[in-house]
């Protein structure tokens, strides 16, 4: 059913819950999981010399930490999880990556923002669900994946 599973992963509590759920589904359906971290664009111009380079280095370090987390989670689950990075707006980048990679399912964590915050700014998970070419699973971080 779900052979190619894309998980939006940012290291948050919701992202970890999504990764766990995606890995469980991959195990159940003999599929493969790719964890995708979306790096938002850095400013093109900065006020201070070296600021752009520092921001770029910080983003690279952050991604390296996410890769370590994904590797640890994969090891605990006895799976191989590919880790990728894309640039751009998170919802757009995840949707584009999933379409180009012919993924069957996108799994994302719920942001846990207040209802007011979500209504005002829109939620990444809502945008992905509205525009993705495939099924989308939104995982709430406080609910164990094995309840289903």
Q: Strand pairing plus helix content: what structural class?
A: alpha/beta
Query: What is the total tally of β strands?
Result: 5
> Going across the major beta sheet, what is the strand order?
3-2-1-4-5
Largest sheet: 5 strands, parallel
Count of folded domains: 1
Strand content: 15-25%
Shape: globular
Low-confidence stretches: none
CATH architecture descriptor text: 3-Layer(aba) Sandwich
CATH superfamily: HUPs
Tally of separate helices: 5
**Helix content percent band:** 40-55%
CATH topology: Rossmann fold
Oligomer: single chain
Provide an overview of this structure.
- There is one protein chain.
- The protein is an alpha/beta fold and about 150 residues long.
- The protein has a single domain (about 10-45, about 50-145), classed as Rossmann fold (3-Layer(aba) Sandwich).
- Helices cover about 45% and strands about 20% of the residues.
- It is globular and about 50 Å long.
- The protein starts with a strand and ends in a 9-residue tail after the last strand.
- About 30% of the residues are buried.
Secondary-structure topology with pairs:
Blueprint lengths: L3 E5 L4 H17 L2 E8 L11 H27 L3 E7 L2 H11 L4 E5 L5 H7 L2 H8 L3 E5 L9
Parallel strand pairs: 1-2, 1-4, 2-3, 4-5
Helix pairs in contact: 1-2, 3-5
